[in-house]
C-alpha cells in the first residue's frame, strides 16, 4: 500500500479551514440525537418521470463494541434504460471523524456491468483506502494511505450527509466552511459548504419553508461539482440535485404522515380444508393464476431486474424489519409526482 503525505501534484498542501475544524469539534451528542431518522426521496427527471429513489438513514451503532453513528444511503434507478445505483455505509465518531466507510457504485449496461467499490478504514494513525473497479471481467485494484494529520476536517460521501443535517438544524452556515475530501483518483481535494437561504417547496400540495445548502467539490482533474440541498425545519431532506444534472431528488410524502400511515390489521386464520367449496374454487383458480402470472413476467422482463436489485440491497443492509425496508425501498416508485415548485424572494 502506497503512503503519501497529503500534498497535491503541484506541491500545494490542501487543508481544512479553522472554521470547518472548529465546527466539527463543536458538535454535541444532543445534536446527533436529533439527527437519528430516515429520509426517503424520489428521483425524477425534468419531465417529472420517476427514475428511482434515494434513501438516507442515520442511527446509533456499536462497532467493535464501541459506540458510533452509522450513516447508510442508497440511490437506485434507471437512466436511458440502464440500471444504476450507489450504496454508502459510513461509521463515524461523535465529531464526524470517519472510522470506516464502504461505497459501491454500479451501472448495468447491455453488454456488461461497471462496478466500483471504495473502502476507507482508519487504523494505526492512518486512513487506508482501497478501490476495486470491475468492468465486465476486468478488475483493477488500487490502495493508498494518508496520515490522519493530513486529513483533519475530512468529509466523505457518508459523513457529508450527516454534516448537512446538523448545519440545517442549526439553520446557519459559518463563514469559510472549507473541508478536505477525496476525488475519483483518491487525491486530497477541497469541498466547501455555503448557504442558499430559504425558499418555499411544495410537498403533498402544501408549501413549506426549506433551508438551502450548497456543497461544492473542487477537483483539479474533474473540475467543480456542486450539489444543492434543501431541508425542512426538522432537518428532513426535501430536495437534492447536482447542478447541471437532469435528475432531481424530491420528497413526495411528509415524514410524519409516512410514519402515521402504517395500519395494524388483525389476521384471521383461514383453513381451506374445512370449506370444501372454497377449497375446490382455490384448486380451480390455482393453475389459471400461475399461467397468467408466468405470461405477465414474460411480457415485463424488467420485473426480474427490479427484484434482483431489491434483493441485493436487502442482503447488503440485512434490516431487522424487512417489511418496512421493502416499503421504504419501493416508495419512490409511487406514480404521483410533484408538479410545482415555488421560490420565495
Automatic annotation (TrEMBL):
It comes from Gouania willdenowi. Residues 19-246 form the Ciliogenesis-associated TTC17-interacting protein N-terminal domain. This is Ciliogenesis-associated TTC17-interacting protein. It is found in: Cell membrane; Cytoplasm, Cytoskeleton; Nucleus. It comes from the Eukaryota. The keyword Membrane applies. Belongs to the CATIP family. The keyword Endoplasmic reticulum does not apply. Plays a role in primary ciliogenesis by modulating actin polymerization. Keywords: Cell membrane, Cilium biogenesis/degradation, Cytoplasm, Cytoskeleton, Membrane, Nucleus. InterPro entries: CATIP_N, DD_CATIP. One of its GO terms (cellular component) is plasma membrane. SUPFAM superfamilies: Dimerization-anchoring domain of cAMP-dependent PK regulatory subunit (SSF47391). GO terms for biological process: actin filament polymerization; cilium organization.
Amino acid at each position: 500500500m502506497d503512503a503519501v503525505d497529503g500534498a497535491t501534484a503541484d506541491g500545494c498542501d490542501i487543508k481544512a479551514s479553522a472554521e470547518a475544524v472548529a465546527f466539527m469539534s463543536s458538535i454535541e451528542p444532543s445534536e446527533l440525537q436529533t439527527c437519528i431518522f430516515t429520509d426517503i426521496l424520489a428521483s425524477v427527471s425534468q419531465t417529472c418521470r420517476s427514475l428511482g429513489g434515494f434513501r438516507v438513514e442515520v442511527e446509533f451503532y456499536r462497532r467493535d463494541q464501541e459506540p458510533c453513528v452509522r450513516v447508510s444511503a442508497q440511490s437506485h434507478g434507471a437512466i436511458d434504460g440502464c440500471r444504476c445505483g450507489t450504496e454508502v455505509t459510513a461509521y463515524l465518531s461523535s465529531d464526524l471523524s470517519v472510522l470506516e466507510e464502504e461505497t459501491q457504485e454500479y451501472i448495468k449496461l447491455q453488454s456488461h456491468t461497471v462496478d466500483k467499490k471504495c473502502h476507507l478504514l482508519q487504523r494505526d494513525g492512518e486512513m487506508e483506502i482501497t478501490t476495486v473497479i470491475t468492468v465486465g471481467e476486468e478488475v483493477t485494484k488500487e490502495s493508498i494511505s494518508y496520515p490522519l494529520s493530513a486529513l483533519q476536517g475530512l468529509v466523505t460521501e457518508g459523513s457529508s450527509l450527516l454534516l448537512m443535517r446538523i448545519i440545517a438544524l442549526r439553520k446557519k452556515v459559518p463563514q469559510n466552511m472549507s473541508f478536505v475530501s477525496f476525488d475519483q483518483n483518491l487525491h486530497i481535494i477541497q469541498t466547501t459548504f455555503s448557504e442558499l437561504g430559504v425558499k418555499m417547496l411544495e410537498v403533498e400540495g402544501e408549501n413549506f419553508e426549506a433551508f438551502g445548502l450548497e456543497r461544492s467539490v473542487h477537483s483539479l482533474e474533474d473540475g467543480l461539482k456542486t450539489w444543492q440541498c434543501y431541508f425542512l425545519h426538522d432537518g428532513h431532506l426535501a430536495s437534492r440535485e447536482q447542478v447541471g444534472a437532469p435528475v432531481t431528488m424530491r420528497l413526495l410524502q411528509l415524514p410524519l404522515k409516512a410514519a402515521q400511515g402504517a395500519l395494524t390489521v388483525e389476521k384471521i386464520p383461514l383453513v381451506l380444508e374445512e370449506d370444501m367449496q372454497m377449497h375446490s374454487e382455490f384448486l380451480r383458480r390455482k393453475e389459471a393464476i400461475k399461467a397468467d402470472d408466468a405470461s405477465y413476467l414474460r411480457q415485463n422482463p424488467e420485473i426480474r431486474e427490479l427484484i434482483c436489485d431489491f434483493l441485493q440491497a436487502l442482503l447488503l443492509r440485512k434490516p431487522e424489519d424487512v417489511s418496512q425496508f421493502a416499503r421504504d425501498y419501493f416508495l419512490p416508485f409511487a406514480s404521483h409526482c410533484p408538479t410545482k415548485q415555488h421560490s420565495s424572494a
